[in-house]
Amino acid sequence: MKAERLQLVLPARLHENYRASQRQWLMTLADFVELVTGRQGSGFNLAPQADRG
Fold first, then answer.
1. pLDDT at residue number 1
2. What is the mean pLDDT of residues 10-33?
3. What is this structure's pTM?
4. What is the residue range of 29's domain?
5. SS3 2
6. Is residue 29 a contact partner of residue 11, using CB atoms and an 8 Å limit?
7. Residue 18: C-alpha distances to residues 25, 27, 41, 45 (Å)
8. CB atoms within 10 A of CB 41
9. Number of domains making up the chain
10. What is the pLDDT at residue 4?
């Protein structure tokens, strides 16, 4: 997933089901919503380049 620049987003309670080395790459759903909300407020476009036109 790292090589493809993908990050798994899960509710925090599910993180415990993954190994410590895997948890480093997990994001909580709450953190993801906060990230997206912040980027939308700054005018950051979440769409990939091909979808922007």
1. 73
2. 92
3. 0.60
4. 1-42
5. coil
6. yes
7. 10, 12, 32, 31
8. 8
9. 1
10. 82
Q: Is residue 11 part of a domain?
A: yes
Phi and psi at residue 8, in whole multiples of 5°? Answer: -80, 130
**Does residue 24 sit within a domain?**
yes
Indicate whether 43 pLDDT > 80. Answer: no
Residue 52 lies in a domain: no
- Is there a domain that residue 49 lies in? no
Per-residue pLDDT, 52? 44
d(CA 16, CA 34): 21
> Is a pLDDT exceeding 60 seen at residue 24?
yes
Cα gap 31→38, rounded to integer Å: 11
- DSSP-H helix ranges across the chain: 20-23, 29-41
